[in-house]
Amino acid sequence: MISPAETTRSFSSSAKNRVSTPVTTIIILGIFAGLYSAMGCFGAQLAETMSGSHVIGSFIFPTGSILTTCCGGTLFTGNLLLAIGCIRKKISFSELLRYLILAWLANFAGSLLFVFIMNLCGYKGEIIDLIINVGINKVSYPFTEALGRAILCGILIDLGAWLSYAGESLTEKIFGVFFPTMLFYLCGYEHCITNMYFIPMAMSHTADITLMMFLNNLLPVTLGNIIGGGLIIAGGYCYCFLRKD
Question: Which runs of consecutive H residues, i.e. helices, occur in 52-142?
Fold first, then answer.
């Protein structure tokens, strides 16, 4: 496993190659990441329904992040660490923004694709009740509460991405992703990409959640994830380890 300083330099030096990825590749890998993330979400909900334990669900939840990291996927939140390259002027702000917007939209598409396929599967009973309750709970947060939970999630998600990047073996990458991702789900923090599954999936089974309620959640959660990952983690490590550079 490489050191924090070396990891910071690696993110900085790889930023140009990342943002230069062809648009079609960003979109396809972004759809995959959204799909994998949604799979982890549903798996966690199913585990909770079967076990009656949120803790058990939190151990299943990181599957989506592990698939994204190890099988290939472009996740909006994990790539907020590319802000390091922007801070060091390896890439422009417009290049970073373009890449992140494409990733966000593709993640959204992948999550909605999973929701569509899941509704073909005919699940009924307790799992649907849980899905609806989770969706209603998420859209009930006021702006500041959603923002605070999202900032903490952004910190943990990008620390998971950080550890996976620092890991050199498959085992190191899996463990690097697993614990921060498990912790944010266990604590009930807010992640804009997983909410692209949680809330639309609930909306497909109840009329109690409107599109405006969904958007009112997605805005502060996306903003909070950016603050937590792109500003606090990326900015903090860049200052600590690359200031002399």
Answer: 54-60, 63-71, 83-87, 93-118, 126-139
